[in-house]
Amino acid sequence: MRVLLPLLRTSWAWCLGAPAAAAARLPRGASAGPGPRRAMAFYRTEERGQPHSPGYRLFFKNVAGHYISPFHDIPLKADSEENLFNMVVEVPRWTNAKMEIATEEPLNPIKQDVKDGELRYVANIFPHKGYIWNYGALPQTWEDPHRKDKSTDCCGDNDPIDVCEIGSKVLSRGDVVHVKILGILALIDQGETDWKLIAINVNDPEASKFHDIEDVKKYKPGYLEATLNWFRFYKIPEGKPENQFAFNGEFKNKAFALEVIKSTHECWKALLMEKCAGGSINCTNVQVCDSPFHCSQEEARSLVESVSFSLNKGSNEEDQVWHFLGK
Length: 327
Known about the structure:
Layout: E1 3-6, E2 13-16, H1 18-24, E3 43-48, E4 57-62, E5 67-68, E6 85-91, E7 99-101, E8 110-112, E9 114-115, E10 118-119, E11 124-125, E12 134-137, E13 155-156, E14 162-165, E15 176-189, E16 192-201, H2 213-219, H3 223-233, E17 244-245, E18 252-253, H4 254-272, H5 297-305, E19 322-323
């Protein structure tokens, strides 16, 4: 039995098996497990290869046990509420490995970024250790590298839109959590717009206090300044200059952020329907039925099984070095 549901209030068909369809029909605000909203109940992950090795991949499965793409098959919105989104966690707070959704690979597993043949790690810059938030992305968004943003006058960076989750819990790689958006920062990276959303896990004990960017300033004083400095300086240990920002580094509010999300979601829809040039982006998906890149569950399984399952010898995480950038 196949159930067709509208995808994000559009005319698209979203393919679901019966177990997944049952989960999709949960009452508003309900969850498939303990806690008020537990997105991970709908998704689980499967590791292939050894962490801290170039061959490591983290694949995603839905509630029915079928392989999916975290980029294309996890819905952007957690439910019909205006400000409740799914976030895919790529990097847990305090860790250094630069993990990311592999946008150019079939089914887009999470992998560690590699540059010049070396695995990438972000530096520890005093007083911080690794990433200072849970870092990840919103699915079903795409910052189009051929589309100039009217507010930054720069094109997109060819990735899903990034999220800095500021809650108190250290999340795990591959978690899918429900977040509410509080604001946004516009990093300009080598002439490209690289949006950074500020969000909080709705299951955080203090989530009810946070509604907009001003609440971050009020209840977590210094966090936005630390975020700005982290993005400004994190490439300096690699010998690169400070990063630049649009709006003189001003954090924009929730309303502005929601418009950016809406725009990047429209870009993603055009990408999945082959209405724009996607370049090397891999659009293989199992749940967007109208997409020309849609594949069957059997084809998805074959794609995953073609990836080595062996536990290749990986390196230990990068030796911990601290950088002090004070004058």
